[in-house]
Design goal:
Elements lengths: L42 E7 L12 H10 L2 E7 L13 E5 L10 H12 L3 E5 L3 H8 L4 H11 L9 E2 L2 E3 L15 E2 L31 E7 L2 E3 L2 E2 L2 H4 L3 E8 L5 E6 L9 H22 L24 H10 L8 E6 L10 H15 L6 E4 L8 E4 L7 E2 L15 E2 L12 H12 L13 E2 L1 H12 L3 H9 L27 E3 L16 H10 L8 E4 L4 E2 L7 E7 L7 E8 L2 E11 L2 E9 L8 E6 L5 E10 L6 E4 L1
Parallel strand pairs: 1-2, 1-3, 3-4, 4-12, 13-14, 13-15, 15-17, 20-22
Antiparallel strand pairs: 5-9, 6-7, 6-8, 8-11, 9-10, 11-12, 16-17, 18-19, 21-28, 22-27, 23-26, 23-28, 24-25, 24-27
Length: 645
Amino acid sequence: MNIELKVHSNEDLEVPPEGEVTHKAAPPRKEAIIAPEELPKRKLALIIQDDNDIYFGDDQSAPTFMSVIKDMGYDVKFEKANETIYTTWKRYDVVVWSCGDDYSAINAPISRQMLVEYVTKGGRLILESGNIAAWNKEFGGATILNLRFRQNVLYATKNWVYHDVGDLTLKTEHPIATIPNALPETIEFTPTKPGDRSGDANAVRILSDLNGDNHVPGATGIYNWSYVAYEGRLVNESVTSKSYGLIASESEENNGGRIVYFAFDIDDIDSPDIQRKLIQNSVNWLREEETISDEGMHMRLCNMPKVPERVLPKGIEATVARLIRMLDKKWVNGTELTYCFLNQPSNFAGSDEQKKVVRDGFNVWKSHGIGLKFGEVSNPSDAMVRIGFKRGDGTWSYVGRDLLDVGPDERTMNFGWDLIREDPRGIDTSTHEIGHTMGFPHEHQNPKSGIEWNEDAVYDWASSTQGWDRDTTYWNIIRKIEPDDVEGSSWDLDSIMHYPFKAGLINKPDKYKTQDLIPAAGISERDITWARTFYPPIENDYEELKIDRLVPLSLSPGEQKDFLLVLEDDSCTRTYNMATVGKSDTVMVLFEEKNGKRHQLAANDDSAEDYNAHISWELTKGKKYILSIRLYHEWVKGETTVKLW
């Protein structure tokens, strides 16, 4: 079939009827304003190679930085140090000044001036040089510019700088060591030209250590050297321990400027994979403030360990099951939870300032006069609560008496990020985890809350902000805990045990479709009420329990009675038995009291079992023993007794 296509000219087009159009000229047409298509913001990095041709090495490492940072999705611009235009640096998200093993690094005063001004105006800088600290010390001169460069860019003291070093060794926990890549505790390092005049590495002492704290006034020594030597002889350990190869600094005074200082030639790290991960972590930390601020408080969430739910016997009465579930993870009142900060392995250890935040969290609960006690011990074998600060492993705690099932060499609580610099909640985070240790679950999983989740949005949000898979998100957010595990009759959205959530993650109540849910700071009034309900103040009003005498327990469900054991037998030390008599469910704990503190000796829980709580223990006449019994349920009220024999 042939189809003829007819092409029309303007003369062929129809025109309006005659008389409808006047001879008056129309007003000028307006030009249409076409909005340009909004493009995603590109990430930009500037890499500056410092090769000043005065006395330089043979190893320039700028290409290593270019390759890694390009792979991170950045548009990378390369410039020579003597050609760079300082006024353009503000366009870039990150600036890298790379010297490699150039011995006369950053020799030009104008270069030092540019770097000082850049960081004091809030710039984000990676400075890589195997010899800038030594060059500045030996040849920089006593000028104001060199002083400012040393203090504001290097954060270095004016002490002697050594060149002959070993491997890089992790000294201080920091995001650059863990996020997003976990770096090894020892990074193998082989200088191209080792010795006392090498341009491959410097052992740098930082200003912060002058104050006895390498976090103040803004610099952190992350990796130091496995050894430092001069003329073939080892330098004193007191110097070596404070001589760093990798330093990070940040300053609120300098508009939030951040610097990562590699005091070595990056190419002399033996493993190319570690080179790449170190650069990635450094760039990530330089830009971290922007990343975290997008989600604010939502970025830091507790990730509770998964523990199998307790399976109660089939046919158990609903009332009994409810009482057991409500009380099962709670401690017997008067228990002293001993806690210890772990120092081994080294990646469990935390700084003194991090430990203080956790101690302050214990004091928050203690200040409300509860009967549960807390005591710090130095030996992990004496601790019920073992606390680590392993970065990248999340922040979490086991809940209540689940701690007792954790191995003696394992952590029961961990803080996976810096509670001061990386967490706007700080002490509230440690208070939250201690709340779990006391036996309190997450409040946002309270089935009485009426929360209906936008589940797809929650899974996406938790994945993008926490890196959680669906199972982890379900366990910590979506899952409703058993109604009988919940304290109270309604939802406490200001509870210390409640997560914050951004708008759109909750479908009901309706207002949280468009409004963020942010719990108030600190523990709520209901938190205090329930803590004091389960752990009322100890009055030391003991009832005596004498040998071979039945004493009525006389308790309501959830209540507790403390007995003072009276040993009238003159045979002194021997094994004694103590047990409940009657059809009931109880938990029984034997303490020895020393200097007003209770030390747990033994415990037995007969809930949902077909036997009564019973303890056999060797007791010594003259010592003070307390037997505490808490009632879950008794079948006939008032029939349960307790006996010592």
